[in-house]
Structures are given as C-alpha cells and as structure tokens.
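Record type: monomer structure entry
Structure origin: computed from sequence
Chain ID: A
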Amino acid sequence: MLVLNNFDKKILIRYIFLVVTNMMGIYEFCNYILTIKKMKAEFSKDIVLKNLGKRIKEIRISKGYTSYEYFAYEHNISRAQFGRYERGEDLRFSTLAKIISAFGMTFEDFFSEGFEQD
C-alpha cells in the first residue's frame, strides 16, 4: 500500500489536475516536480542546523575563542551541548538566543551572513 504525506498528495492532485486539463506537458511537469523537491531539500532541517552550527563556530573563532569548551564555560553553556550545536545538532530557540547574546550580537547581525540562498 502506498502511503503519501500531505506534500506528496498535493503534488499528485496538481498532476491529476494538469493532465486532465492538459495545461502542461509531461516534460514541464517533471521539471516542476524537480523544482519543488529541490526547494523542499534546500529548507530541510539538517541543512539549516548545519548552517547554524557553521555560523556559531565562525563567530566564536572570530571573537578570539579557539576552544568551544572555553567559550561555553565562560558563558555558562554546557560544553558538551555547545559542541553539538557547532556540529549542527538540534538546539532550542532559547539556547540560540543565549548564544547570540553571548556573542554580543543581535539576531539581525547573526543572520546577516552564512544563510544566503543560491
């Protein structure tokens, strides 16, 4: 039995609509599907977390902290957990706010680099 999530159901419904109304050829539809799937992949949780981790590490180093453990200790953040954040593992919004504050930055400053879309 084929199980479809809501995203796939929407694509299937659009496909049926397009075939029935003959508004778009198969080639165009395939390109449409590939574009949608690419957009979905670009905003995946893993990619966003990796970008967050990379940005956190870049800023820590630019602030003169060669060791993530020393930075975490100095700012009362779990050292083991901070290492996970830099590797792109999941973190809470409140933790991200604490890290950005420890950097002496605003959210706008933090997200101004490293999150550009191609």
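Annotation 1: The radius of gyration is 21 Å.
Annotation 2: The helical segments are 6-21, 26-42, 45-62, 68-74, 79-86, 93-102, 107-110.
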